[in-house]
Amino acid sequence: MTIKYKEDDDYFYVYVEEYPDDCYCMWTKNVQQDKVYSIERLDVLPLFRRNGIARNLLNAAIARIKAECSQACIEISAQPDEDSEVTKDNLVKFYQSLDFEIYQNFHPKRTELRLYLDTLTKPEPLFDSPYYFKSTI
């Protein structure tokens, strides 16, 4: 399967060429916070799950973001679709396997995670705050 890239308005996509509407990762830039990107959607047809496609799509999106901003913070919400067999816990484990870290886990149906491409800018502890980045001054 070939992974392609496209832009549509303020959204960016990597997708499986043969299934552009069903196997894709979509992200946006945060207009209020410089260097912050949000993965808005990661979809893989149930038939193709557990074959590494979601990992490949997410890694391709991360590589695109890193090429644009090597100090980016990437946010993602682990929230399965209502009719999905995938659980929130499955999603959290998957994202953590790609080095995302939980920063907020108050909602019963959703967990918020972040990935810092430059660990020198990652605040400690990682928590929900208007300050996404540690000062490097």
Helix/strand-derived category reads alpha+beta
Order of helices and strands: EEEEHEHEE
Please give the share of residues in helix. Answer: 10-25%
Largest sheet: 7 strands, mixed
Describe the structure.
The chain has 137 residues and is of the alpha+beta class. The chain has helices spanning 53-68, 88-96, and strands spanning 3-8, 11-16, 24-29, 36-43, 73-78, 101-107, 110-116. Strands 1-2-3-4-5-7-6 form a 7-stranded mixed beta sheet. A hairpin with a 6-residue loop joins strand 3 (24-29) and strand 4 (36-43). The longest helix is centred in the middle third of the chain and has 16 residues, at 53-68. The N and C termini lie far apart (44 Å).
